[in-house]
Design brief:
The protein is an alpha+beta fold and 84 residues long. β1 and β2 form a beta hairpin. The chain has one domain: 2-Layer Sandwich (Alpha-Beta Plaits). It is elongated, with a radius of gyration of 12 Å. Strands 1-2 form a two-stranded antiparallel ribbon. The chain is 20% helix and 7% strand. The structure holds iron/sulfur cluster (2 copies).
Length: 84
């Protein structure tokens, strides 16, 4: 599941455009992350971009996933070989 947004989200919309996988969207009440699209930014950046920009620190790591799983997701989403 990678990262998740908690109910402390203030709907500021800063994280959404930062996601390289378009995994973030406005949900019913707060922003949400699609676990099938979040790679923890692996393959794109060294650190999760949404976490870096969130002004209220409400995007903790959810269920832990191995780097191999995240890289495989990157390949599925982008159609490109992952940087290993
Ligand atoms: Fe998107 Fe990266 Fe945040 Fe996952 S960690 S939701 S891929 S910005
Ligand atoms: Fe919510 Fe943080 Fe995203 Fe702003 S940056 S919309 S507070 S999760």
């Amino acid at each position: 599941m990678s990262l998740k947004i908690t109910d402390e989200c203030i709907n500021c919309d800063v994280c959404e455009p930062e996601c390289p996988n378009e995994a973030i969207s406005q949900g019913e009440e707060i922003y949400v992350i699609d676990p099938d699209k979040c790679t923890e930014c692996v393959g794109h950046f060294d650190a999760p971009q949404c976490q870096q920009v969130c002004p209220v620190d409400c995007i903790p790591l959810g269920q832990e996933e191995s780097r191999e799983v995240l890289l495989a997701r990157y390949e599925k989403l982008t159609g490109k070989p992952a940087p290993r």
